[in-house]
Amino acid sequence: FYPGRNDVVLYATKDGLYVTELDTRVPQNTIRLLAGNLDFEVMGDRVFIHEKNTYYELLFTASTVNNAISI
Question: ∠ CA 51-57-63 to the nearest 5 degrees?
């Protein structure tokens, strides 16, 4: 991802769970975190994912970049 930035969007499609950076300059980076049609639930600031017999929890950490707080 673009150096010094950590603002991203997390989204799901029928093909998997993806993260993409908000910076629209070319090239815009998009990464598939998990493949497949996944079940997931958002509870507050926590994201739980169920894939077959496995459960995942996404953890987000707060950090400061140029005096801005991003999660």
Answer: 145
Nearest to 31 by CA among 62, 53, 10: 10
Beta strands 39-43; 30-35: pairing state? unpaired
DSSP the chain: --TT---EEEEEETTEEEEEES--SSSPPEEEEEES--EEEEETTEEEEEETTEEEEE----EEETTEEE-
Give the contacts of 47 (CB within 8 A, at least 6 positions apart): 10, 40, 41, 57, 58
Question: What pLDDT, in 10s, does the model give residues 3-59?
Answer: 666 678 888 899 988 888 887 778 788 889 889 888 888 888 788 888 888 888 887
